[in-house]
Amino acid sequence: AQRVTQPEKLLSVFKGAPVELKCNYSYSGSPELFWYVQYSRQRLQLLLRHISRESIKGFTADLNKGETSFHLKKPFAQEEDSAMYYCALSGGMYSGGGADGLTFGKGTHLIIQP
Amino acid sequence: DTEVTQTPKHLVMGMTNKKSLKCEQHMGHRAMYWYKQKAKKPPELMFVYSYEKLSINESVPSRFSPECPNSSLLNLHLHALQPEDSALYLCASSYERYYEQYFGPGTRLTVT
To answer: Which secondary-structure segment (H or E) carries B107?
Structure first.
């Protein structure tokens, strides 16, 4: 069974400080990993996909298969980064037809203090 | 049009009612999904459609009945729901299975 773990329910940092939101996963094949963000009263939005290796809004995430982690990082937090962040896993196209809906972690509520 | 739209935004229904939720996308995506999200919880997958065919049903009760009339439209028919079915119902779409998913704003359902 696949599983996504986000150990921090709430993370509060000051503006300008570095941010790291942790995500660990459990999956027997080669997963696709994503970070989604939900700002207050807005829809769930894709932030990052591991395969694209791009930086969005200053956030980056590296897939570490050895540690089965996909932590989200930003060097300098901004107040507009305050939101709920979800790490999510999909079976991936090379998983032999495995589950392809998203399995979400429980989410981390990030608060950036001024 | 680069968004997933959902109607209605809010729905209140009694346990004996029949209602439907609608989802639409015009991005040419061939996979569409229904998720259920309870308050302060992550979304949970309910159904997956790929090329208008149901490919995954995550053991959802039969009081929820999905329908995909065409590649742009996804419906969720509701009948004899229970109060615990009250939640935000999210629709999502992706180019194909395994690609990143784009979410609609959701329908807030209350069952009385």
So the answer is: strand B107-111
Alpha-carbon distance of A23 to A87, in angstroms, equals 6
Per the rule left: phi > 0, alpha: psi between -120 and 50, beta: everything else, B16 is: alpha
Inter-chain touch B33–A34, beta carbons under 8 Å: no
State whether residue B74 sits within 8 Å of chain A by CB. Answer: no
Q: Is the peptide bond before B8 cis (omega within 30 degrees of 0)?
A: yes
Q: What is the DSSP string of A23-41?
A: -EEE-SS--EEEEEEE-TT
Question: Taking CB atoms and an 8 Å cutoff, what residues of chain B touch A46?
Answer: 100-102
Q: Which residues pair with B66 in a beta bridge?
A: B76
Measured CA to CA, the distance from residue B40 to residue B25 in angstroms comes to: 27
Q: Kindly give, in sequence order, each residue whose CB lies less than 8 Å from that of residue B73, ignoring residues fewer than 6 positions away.
A: B22, B23, B24
Strand runs (DSSP E) across A39-107, as ranges?
45-49, 60-61, 72-74, 83-90, 103-104
The per-residue pLDDT for range A49-89, each reduced to its tens digit, is: 887 777 788 999 988 989 999 999 999 999 999 999 999 99
pLDDT tens-digit readout, B40-72: 899 999 999 988 888 878 789 999 999 999 989
